[in-house]
Amino acid sequence: MLVFEWIVGVLMAAVLLAALARRLKAPFPALLALGGVGLAFVPGVPELRLDPDLALALFLAPVLLDAGFDTSLRDMRANWLPIAGLVIGAVGVTTAAVALVLRWLLPDMPLAACIALGAIVAPPDAVAALSVLRHVSLPHRLVTILKGESLFNDASAFIIYRLAVAVAVSGGASVGDLLPGFLIGVAGSLVAGPVLAWLYARLLRRVADAPSTIVLQFVSTFGVWLLAERVGLSGVLTVVTFGITLARLSATMTPARLRVPSNAVWETAVFVLNVLAFVLIGSQIGPILDELTAHEGEHAGFIAALVVLTTVLVRLAWVMGANGTARVARRLGLLRGPEPASLLAGTVVAWCGMRGVVTVALALALPRDFPHRDLAVLTAFCIVLGTLVVQGLTLRPLLTWFSLRGDDVVGREAGLARAAAYRAALDSLAGDRSPHTAALREEFEAALREADRDREGRAPSALPADAPRRRAIRAAREAIHGLRQRGAIGDDAYSHLEEELDWAELSATPRDEI
């Protein structure tokens, strides 16, 4: 019961931290990291440990699927060069730099273990950055680059991590021995993900109720990860390609009555998993610190601080160097495509290198016999804490200072697509002369008249009758509430009508008001 009581209390604290983060317009993961620090010093906190493989499946699979599902392949193809540079170059250089620093500070630490720790701290977590960016208006291209990086840098770091950990704990094996089989697994993952998504999409057509659909989504997510790991594939790449493919296959086959509750459940699940990851690592930090002498603690703190500094400086140097090289190549005619990011925009991308739940999950997944495991866990937590607090809490003031203006690409495309959707809806009513259809036709025609008056042809975000419809629904809610209060109707009838009004309200509410 003690562990259960702690989890209940921690989740309540997380809700309060989320409210505080929204009020301060600060990244929620930064406050979670501070909460993890506080948890490490609270007496009586139970030390929670997970099986390493379970930690990876539990924390990475849902987060990666969620990110893959929301990925825009078109935008990523248009920005493949900067994304690839961050995913391959920045992750690789950061891993190497951290490994060299650790090897210099700890000569007795095996090189493979140093590389593994470098891979743990290399991938930034865009969730923290995007939680800040949603409060400001930034060029769409920068947001696309950060999203693309967050999706695929986990895969590149995880490949290095898995190889390095295998070498570090196996004793006699070398990278040359393990690499061929690993590369075959990577190639197989790129095929297995889309195939499994196609099979799952066919199964999804046969499920019609929300609880079964949501349970099946989680079962498929963890099932894809477990199957990939069991047959020697990459769980990360398989889940990512599964999510990207499934997003395109299921778009037209999932009705709103299933998609709305599903999105809410997934958002909640990712929230809870972030909380539990920081709780787990916070509960392990306390015992680690208790076992350190004062001198050992100072030495470990110095190592962690130097690793944090290394990761921040390497990312700054890589982004600035890559942008400078791209600008020179463009002037020489060697590079085509979008203009490289400006100095200010590059600085923002570089400063968005906060580490988060992926780093925490990889640290928790280290085997028990991993060399210097306690130091690795402590260092990983310190870099998550340092980058989230320092970079996370200063990112918004930096953006305000730079005054970067958003280009509203999403708003423009949404407005044009909305106009096309309204025209298609209006065409579907042709030939139907009933009074009800006439009223609906008038709504769409009024919206399209506004689109015709717009300079870019954008349709408004709400139909003309949405505002009075919402007002009418509020009055209807008050009426059925009064009937229930007076005992004129029972709770069953009330719940039935409440659900009807909920769907009516959702259909009349623009996305930004939901």
CATH top level label of the largest domain: Mainly Alpha
Head-to-tail CA distance between termini: 37 Å
Decide which structural class fits the backbone.
mainly alpha
- As for the number of domains, it is 3
Helix content: over 70%
Main beta-sheet strand count, sense and barrel state: none
Number of strands: 0
The amount of beta strand, in percent, is under 5%
Second-tier CATH architecture of the largest domain: Up-down Bundle
Q: What is the N-to-C order of secondary-structure elements (H for helix, E for strand)? A: HHHHHHHHHHHHHHHHHHHH
Helix segment tally: 20
- What is the overall silhouette? globular
- Uncertain runs are none
For this structure, the CATH topology of the largest domain is: Na+/H+ antiporter like fold
Return the average pLDDT rounded to an integer. Answer: 83
Radius of gyration, in angstroms, nearest whole number: 26 Å
Notable characteristics:
single chain; 514 residues; Na+/H+ antiporter like fold; mainly alpha; 20 helices; 3 domains
Topology, element by element:
Elements: H1 2-24, H2 28-40, H3 52-69, H4 73-78, H5 80-105, H6 111-121, H7 126-133, H8 140-170, H9 175-204, H10 210-230, H11 235-249, H12 256-291, H13 294-331, H14 343-351, H15 357-364, H16 373-402, H17 409-428, H18 435-453, H19 466-485, H20 491-507
Helix pairs in contact: 1-2, 1-12, 2-12, 2-16, 3-10, 3-11, 3-12, 3-15, 5-6, 5-8, 5-13, 6-8, 7-8, 7-16, 8-9, 9-10, 9-11, 10-11, 12-15, 12-16, 13-14, 13-16, 15-16, 17-18, 19-20
